[in-house]
């Protein structure tokens, strides 16, 4: 099946950066066959992109889509109080709850231009054919692309850990070969995951040829407790356990020291910054300019709805372009193109898909979005890249294509019954969140 996107302004990238060109894009099955003016393809379905920007779909490099039902639930709390409050609800979540909550997150992500997300979830799907199989089931049902990790904590040899590890690798085996699904291990954090567990997960990564994602140096309290208990920064501590010997996406890294940054650059660790979550939880600002100067691959994530409270990557790009300037008192600290890189090509690199995702070129996977430029926030069209980062709010996303399949057209989703998802999520909230509120 071929799809021809005609008459659009196409956002392209080469060695010198981003540029826009009037062009057509031809999709053949799951990949982009050609990007060139005046293309023709017999039998192709045609999308008229006149007045629209055709650009790569955004990659959310760190989120917890299962937490979408926590939206507006645990606000204005200190980090560990917040964590405690949401975890009490999560104890009651079933695999099916995770499916619906993830799907709610996917609706929001698709409607705001995200075509791929790196997820850390809390339960692994144990039945591939089950209609409501946790996060993996939601990804397959919706048509979005994702890298799923299961957040694991504790020690490696407890009965519970052995069971959870078994479930995690079983899910990886069950869904092996699904083109839109990748897996990583997800050790939650150095303060929640003991050394032997970090080592075990890293060994498993090596055996399976996969990476891992972990929260690192997110809060001042984490820094203080790791310094006191381990005598090292969280980043140096996990490196000593061998965690960086496989590809890693390290979320947050707000308190990374200069030595940490040098270490991460040397070990080719990708950092997923989450500016809105870090501000909301009062954690501060990651040293983004230092990461970029050291050559660290910096990508962008929203974190979960429990701490953001939305999964809108346009909002996140906007925040990233503003807050680090403000924190550094330096307008050149992070530019619009830097931020667009974080949300596209850098995210692709972090998940091992450089050249295949995050940019529009022949041979790349057909994950792309169409942005309506006929809206006040893009007029006048002085600089489209600035528009995407500084004035867009995500509502301009008109069409979303993932793996060559149209998942949204004219802002209508083609694979998800939105009302059903909203109904299910309201029922879950009534059962889980309101029960907690009554206990208090
Ligand atoms: Zn997180």
Distance between the termini: 56 Å
State the secondary-structure class. Answer: alpha/beta
What is the name of the CATH superfamily of the largest domain? Metal-dependent hydrolases
* Number of separate structural domains: 2
- Write down the Rg: 21 Å
Low-confidence stretches: none
Tally of individual helices? 15
Question: What do you see in this structure?
Answer:
The chain has helices at residues 79-90, 95-111, 134-142, 159-174, 195-208, 220-230, 234-240, 258-266, 275-280, 288-294, 313-328, 336-343, 345-350, 384-391, 418-439; strands at 2-14, 17-28, 31-36, 45-48, 52-56, 58-63, 114-121, 145-152, 181-183, 186-187, 212-216, 248-252, 270-273, 297-300, 368-372, 397-402, 405-409, 412-413. The protein is α/β, with parallel strands linked by helices and 440 residues long. The protein folds into 2 domains: 2-56 and 366-413, Urease, subunit C, domain 1; 58-350, TIM Barrel (Alpha-Beta Barrel). The strands form 3 sheets. Strands 1, 2, 3, 4, 5, 15, 16, 17 and 18 form a 9-stranded mixed sheet that branches. The protein is globular and about 65 Å long. The model has no long low-confidence stretch (mean pLDDT 95). The protein binds zinc ion (ZN). Residues 62, 64, 120, 215, 251, 303-304 line the site of zinc ion. Zinc ion binds next to loops.
